[in-house]
């Protein structure tokens, strides 16, 4: 375990670690069991009524790089709600965030502006990907290498504007090289 001070002074997320209570930590461990943090995919058996949406990065529109994340935050932002951010794994033996004291889990207000901070933090630099989950359990998103975002959202909460994120799966099949397409299609299963 890496003890303090593992957080560098210039890490943009420095002020957001070590703020979770026991209940929030227990809830996040439940979320983690439903995600394959090594493959950056969801175990959909844990989420029978949720649908997987796919968004691609739009680097020309910072900080709203992922329009889907911005839409989800706006839709589910309630008084007292938060976002929890933690890294994907690069080793099968232990959750990456558990290797640190305090745990490498950031708790932020529900605001898209934190996406840019996380993408510049140690969390991103460790292995290129991270998870964001809202405290209301409305959505969980995996962001990989800043290129694509896979989100799991309650099927009952999807207005028609989210249809384009379902159609993105077809774009993969039509346009990506076979290796990348195969790994992203695996994520859809």
TrEMBL record:
UniProt KW keywords: Plasmid
Record protein name field: Uncharacterized protein
Organism expressing this protein natively: Psychrobacter urativorans
């Amino acid at each position: 375990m890496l003890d303090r001070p593992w957080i560098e002074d210039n890490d943009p997320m420095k002020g957001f670690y070590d703020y979770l209570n026991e209940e929030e930590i227990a809830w996040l461990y439940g979320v983690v069991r439903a995600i394959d943090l090594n493959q950056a995919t969801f175990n959909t058996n844990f989420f029978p009524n949720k649908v997987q949406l796919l968004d691609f990065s739009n680097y020309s529109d910072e900080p709203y790089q992922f329009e889907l994340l911005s839409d989800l935050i706006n839709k589910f932002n309630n008084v007292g709600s938060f976002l929890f951010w933690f890294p994907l794994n690069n080793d099968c033996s232990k959750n990456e965030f558990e290797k640190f004291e305090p745990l490498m889990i950031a708790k932020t207000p529900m605001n898209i502006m934190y996406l840019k901070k996380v993408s510049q933090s140690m969390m991103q630099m460790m292995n290129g990907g991270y998870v964001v989950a809202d405290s209301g359990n409305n959505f969980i998103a995996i962001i990989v290498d800043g290129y694509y975002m896979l989100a799991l959202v309650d099927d009952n909460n999807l207005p028609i504007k989210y249809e384009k994120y379902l159609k993105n799966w077809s774009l993969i099949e039509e346009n990506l090289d076979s290796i990348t397409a195969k790994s992203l299609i695996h994520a859809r299963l």
